[in-house]
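Researcher: We're teaching a course module on how sequence relates to structure. For the next exercise, students receive a sequence and then see the predicted structure as tokens, so they can try to spot secondary structure elements on their own. Here is the exercise chain.
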Amino acid sequence: MPFIDLSTLGEKEIVSGFHGKFVHGEKMTTTFWRIEAERALPEHAHPHEQISMVISGKFEMILNGEKCELEAGKIAVIPPNVKHSGRAITDCKIVDIFSPVREDYR
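Model: And here is the predicted structure for the students to work with:
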């Protein structure tokens, strides 16, 4: 499927308040998140490299013990197996890119 209309994809709630639409390529997954204000992402790590970009709203991320408030246009680069967590300060839209593919999001 080389062309996808994002509006036709269903959402999955992966963590309470974190609603995602997932697009899988051969070697990567892109996730389009809609996150409810004040919802938290527990600390975790995974073998995937991750790049997160805030499209709208404010999101507090803790990456390897360092805290940063991300807003539109700010990007976090998360290496594989590094612990991270976060909290939506406001309603947010975030795009995450994972490599390799997130099989658990299929």
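Model: If you want an answer key for the exercise: The longest strand covers residues 49-56. The chain has one domain: 21-105.
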